[in-house]
Amino acid sequence: MTIQNNYCVIMAGGIGSRFWPLSKNRKPKQFLDILGTGKSFIRSTFERILPVVPVENILVVTSAQYKEQVLEHLPELKPGQVLTEPVRRNTAPCIAYAAYRIAAVNPNANMIVAPSDHLITGEAEFQSIVREGLAFVEGNNRLMTIGIKPSRPETGYGYIQVDTAPLPETAGTAICKVKTFTEKPDLEMAKVFVESGEFFWNSGIFIWSVGGILHALESHLPEMAARFAAGHSDYGTASEQPFIDAIYPSCENISIDYGVMEKSPDVYVRCGDFGWSDIGTWGSLYQHAEQNEERNVIGSENVLTYDTRGTIVRIPKGKVAVVEGLEDYLVVDEDNALLICRRESEQNIRNYVEDVKYRFGEEFV
Amino acid sequence: MTIQNNYCVIMAGGIGSRFWPLSKNRKPKQFLDILGTGKSFIRSTFERILPVVPVENILVVTSAQYKEQVLEHLPELKPGQVLTEPVRRNTAPCIAYAAYRIAAVNPNANMIVAPSDHLITGEAEFQSIVREGLAFVEGNNRLMTIGIKPSRPETGYGYIQVDTAPLPETAGTAICKVKTFTEKPDLEMAKVFVESGEFFWNSGIFIWSVGGILHALESHLPEMAARFAAGHSDYGTASEQPFIDAIYPSCENISIDYGVMEKSPDVYVRCGDFGWSDIGTWGSLYQHAEQNEERNVIGSENVLTYDTRGTIVRIPKGKVAVVEGLEDYLVVDEDNALLICRRESEQNIRNYVEDVKYRFGEEFV
Questions:
Q1: Which residues on B lie below 8 Å from A322 (Cβ)?
Q2: Is residue A154's pLDDT more than 70?
Q3: Which of A229, A264, A277, B342 is the most buried (most CB within 10 A)?
Q4: Using the 8-state DSSP alphabet, how is residue A24 labeled?
Q5: DSSP string covering B49-61, please?
Q6: pLDDT at residue B15 tops 70
Q7: Could you tell me if A167 lies within 8 Å of chain B, comparing CB atoms?
Q8: Of the partner residues B318, B345, B355, the one whose CB lies closest to the CB of residue A304
Q9: Do B302 and A333 count as a contact with CB atoms less than 8 A apart?
Q10: Locate the MannoseP isomerase/GMP-like beta-helix domain: which residues (chains A, B) (predicted)?
Q11: What are the backbone angles phi and psi of residue B333, rounded to the nearest 5°?
């Protein structure tokens, strides 16, 4: 196994409206440093994979409007390494595009596919698992996903149930065969999942050989596979973008989990425990950020709180805030928008953003 | 009585920190249009007095740092009509300065003294009362103040108790002799005041002849009077400001009410009912502003509220706000500061401003 065959596809097309107004259409979550680490999510994702994948083998798939931002955050990439979707689609077309593109230049490639906006604190453990996974899928059609050992009965994640019986093909590894993928459970179900020890969180990180995923796409999404296969001679040339712009809009809007993983017989999960969170909500930010003595998470200088607890406050640099009498609220002042809401109402933020867009226009969302 | 003898002194030296962050040291309340009338308080004060006093007889007393702002809001004034205090003092030195300045040019002057940051909705009634008052004080030493018929047992105002027995000198007018000036009462006392019918709110608007107030200052604040009298030949010349800068800091920091009005035997009150409020607090703004169906006062475009009642929201133009789950709060986003606090905590805003200044610096207050 040679490192030159290792490829990574970073998926960076999301808009992250749940973090409005910190995230906006023109600056979605992957480009933000929400946790104050000094690096954006996409930059951290890129740096985490660099020891495993040569920089020239890293591709980012995003929307055309974010291409410049991707290159600003990842100046090591050449413009041709940033693939752009002409319209927003779920993960299956995104992954199919990248896979056929890679197959056209290196049919022996092994691929990691990773979201661009997740938190991972245990980088060494992550890299070790990725290397193990790449070896496990090389030269075969196995599809692997990384599962996360659940630390709580989270209802915001999908779960993967594994077959705990040892299998010949995974002998000597921590890799299990997948029994089922599940949708987000309710709390009762999530508790049962966690107690059983058979369920892992679905991290959305995949590892496979390019041959393996092409085989799976041809088997389970044959129409989509045929569309991308037709571009074999276009990939890497000036006609690639016109080709993609022509076929992408008619691709089915389906996730790789639903379209491929749930239907394939040869799917495995490697359980990881490397400090992962999708930081998909303000609630998960609150969990991961430093809380002060009043349980407040103050993401800015120049904030004074009085009789305020359990509250997240973020204001722009150079601004001052006085916050009095709030308990378990979210206060985000960013650019041309101010949001004040109860933390327990965070699932409504998408609706607020829709209302703002409808009432006041695109420039605020 | 000739209109050329009518003078007005507008007191505009306050900083209005209770309206922070809408008011700031560099832009205090008198220069704001808090109620959204399209005019600042000082502009409204000026226009209200114009039908009664020739424009060249209107003086504004303010701090040196606000002189330019006064002239921007009142471009009809010549720079020499804006008197500047080198240090902040209470109303007695301010009024003494203006009175000696006026006496130096017109010993027959009659004066109205008015705060610059109050609301008056009944302008015609106000002007009629001022004219009546000017006639009442002309050529004598009577000191007159305008009292406001109380509409509620307000604890934020001083009260004036009157002698309801008709007096020969006020015959045929609605003017009464003053019995006592009182400090701000507690609620029980305020209720007794209002029910008695003998008490009026002290509006801080005074009317007297220049001879009358000079006589009273010489009698009750003789040291202060002597200081300002010594500048007789300086007023209206290039040496006026150096003279004032030299004597002002040593003037007693005392109000005209306490220093003169409470001690004079010849004090009268004219009761007015012309829609007056000092708009001294966010609470009084809330009372006077238009409330929507959820009892919110939304002072800006582009504000969406959800499950929010009794709340004041003000944000800058071009910004959007989403506010959820607040009841009886104050949300003010202005320039480089954001304030969120319960309306019932508004009396603490001065303390918050002090804390902000101490912690983060002058540029925020």
A1: 337-341, 352, 355-356
A2: yes
A3: A277
A4: B
A5: HTTTS-GGGEEEE
A6: yes
A7: no
A8: B355
A9: no
A10: 302-354
A11: -115, 115
Hey, which residues does B88 pair with through a beta bridge?
none
Which structure tokens are listed for A129?
Answer: 């698992």
Give the residue from B293, B324, B321 showing the smallest Cα distance to B307. Answer: B324
For A340-353, write each residue's pLDDT tens digit. Answer: 999 999 889 989 99
Q: What angle do CA B280, B286, B287 make, to 5 degrees?
A: 85
Cβ-nearest to B342 among A321, A325, A342: A325
Read off the pLDDT of residues A272-307 as tens digits, 9 standing for 90 and up. 889 898 888 888 888 888 899 999 999 889 999 999
The radius of gyration of chain A from alpha carbons, rounded to an integer in Å, stands at: 21
Phi, psi of B220 (to 5 degrees): -110, -25
Residues within 8 A of A (CB atoms), B 303-362 only:
304, 306, 315, 318-326, 329, 331, 333, 336-342, 345, 348, 352, 355-356, 359-360
What's the rounded Cα separation, in Å, for the pair A362 and A337?
12
Q: What is the gyration radius of the CA atoms in chain B, in angstroms?
A: 21
A206 Cβ contact list (under 8 Å, min separation 6): A95, A111, A112, A113, A143, A144, A145, A146, A256, A261
Kindly identify which residue of chain A lies nearest to residue B335, measuring between CA atoms. A319
For A244, left (φ over 0), alpha (ψ -120 to 50), or beta? alpha
**B321 to A304: CB separation less than 8 angstroms, yes or no:** no
Q: What is the pLDDT of residues B83-106, one digit of tens each?
A: 999 999 999 999 999 999 999 999
Q: What are phi and psi of A338, to 5 degrees?
A: -125, 130
Contact (CB, 8 A) for A57 and A4: yes
Distance CA A40, CA B25 (A): 38
Exposed e or buried b per residue across B94-110, where buried means at least 16 C-beta atoms within 10 angstroms of its C-beta: bbbbbbbbbbbeeeebb
**Shortest alpha-carbon distance between residue B280 and chain A (Å):** 20
Task: Check B340 against A360: CB less than 8 A apart.
Answer: no
Rounded CA-CA distance A137/A214 in Å is 13
| Cis geometry, peptide bond prior to residue B185 (ω within 30 degrees of 0) | no
Amino acid present at A148: I
The DSSP 8-state label assigned to residue A261 in this structure reads I
**Which chain A residues have a beta carbon less than 8 Å from that of B22?**
none
Q: Cβ–Cβ contacts within 10 Å for residue B111, how many?
A: 27
ipTM of the complex: 0.79
Give the model's pLDDT for residue A299: 85
Contact B352 A324 (CB under 8 A): yes
